[in-house]
Amino acid sequence: MKTIYLDNAATSFPKPPGMMEAMNSFQRDIGANPGRSGHGRSIDAGRVMYEAREALAGLFNIDDPLSVVLTKNSTEALNIVLLGALAPGDHVVTTGMEHNSVMRPLRYLASRGVDLSVIECSPQGDLDPADLQKALRKNTKLVVMTHASNVTGTIQPVAEVGRMVRQRDGVMFCVDAAQTAGALPIDVEDMNIDLLAVTGHKSLFGPQGTGALYIRRGLEKRIAPLMMGGTGSRSEFEIQPDFLPDKYESGTPNALGFAGLCAGVQFIVGQSLRAIREKEKLITAAFLQRMEGCPDVTVYGPAEADRQTAVVSFNVRNVTPSDAALYFEEECGILCRPGLHCAPAAHRTLGTFPQGTVRFSFGFFNAPGDADAAAEAIRDLLKG
Amino acid sequence: MSGSESHAVILLESVSHALRAEKILKAAGIRCKLIPVPRQLSSDCGVCLRIAAADGERAAGVLAGRLDYFNIAPLEK
Ligand SMILES: Cc1ncc(COP(=O)(O)O)c(C=O)c1O
Fold this sequence. Notes:
The complex is a heterodimer.
Chain A: E1 4-5, H1 17-30, H2 40-59, E2 68-71, H3 74-85, E3 91-95, H4 100-111, E4 115-119, H5 129-135, E5 140-146, H6 158-166, E6 172-176, E7 195-199, E8 211-215, H7 255-271, H8 273-291, E9 297-300, E10 311-316, H9 321-332, E11 334-335, E12 337-339, H10 344-350, E13 357-361, H11 369-383
Parallel strand pairs in A: 1-11, 3-4, 3-5, 5-6, 6-7
Antiparallel strand pairs in A: 2-8, 7-8, 9-10, 10-13, 12-13
Chain B: E1 7-12, H1 15-27, E2 32-36, E3 47-52, H2 56-63, E4 70-75
Bound molecules: pyridoxal-5'-phosphate.
């Protein structure tokens, strides 16, 4: 049986051939420790890291590539911001659609005296920016929210929130773009984003173990590093460097992975983000259309391709998400994800906690026919 | 850059900064090469950019405002 991969929101598969070739050639021809040793191949490895920063900076309209901190994923990027910026007595605002990479650090911080406001979203997962505005206080230090939900794909009004936050002195705006980097346009200037957390292995087509955090220049003074150690710079000093990006990049990085990530971003630029979005929108729309008027299938979220990423969550009447996923894999060769998708807060918003949903997430490399196959599989399951 | 030419080095904060400076200089048509930081200038284990001494002023001009910190020092033979 042919398999159909519908779990791109967890990690994209397959990757562009250039990504694998870049990693191969890094390990074959360079393979040195970036920026640690000063010899030619160490510099070449550093250059690979630099090119990855530059590629990401270009994609998100970041003017200084050195303000792109390379991390192991978006979880690390978000933890740098949350644990590094918030102290007891500070107020932080987030939404009811967040992933646990935001919620867990925030719940931990709340238990340590950080004041936390979680803004409720509609049952489709939409945030009303006016609700968020009302929650801002004198001691608000940070607003952190997802650009699009990993459960329903709901695209949030990040630009509106960014505009509001920018008008408040001293409040930083952090966006979790794990689901959208490489899938939707992101412009840190237009959207007034101060801190942007992305992961490399989803729509950016990099390998697992890569991610990045953009830090608006100057804000590094307000964010303590999560880890300290060797950076290859200022080796004569025993204190951590205080400048970007070294302040947040201790230890030998995943240079091999960033060679791949850089090639992944170049693939996106080559195809154009717009073409990628159009393709993903078409397949999402096709699948949603086939689910319309299906009384035994409940689709969560906007159910409108324009208002969501290529992620669709649903439940089939009288079938648990895990049974459905097992059926899809065993009988139809469809690989998907059932359950809570690391986002219990979002499921509470949608009314699907604790049973969760089945999530089909499409990607650029899915064939148009995969939407039909996905719909067919659900029909077969219903027929029993 | 011939062997007889006199050189200067641009010291930067880290290898990422040195690579950024290298790009900026090359785009401005200034020849440069990444080399290990000479021991007499710093005990840092990093790299710096070697340029022709005659290009020092022009290099400082194109880097100003684009990198927070850099320091141009003559390179003694
Ligand atoms: C919205 C959102 N935030 C954060 C993450 C965490 O990403 P990673 O596991 O790559 O750190 C994910 C993906 O799992 C996500 O979908």
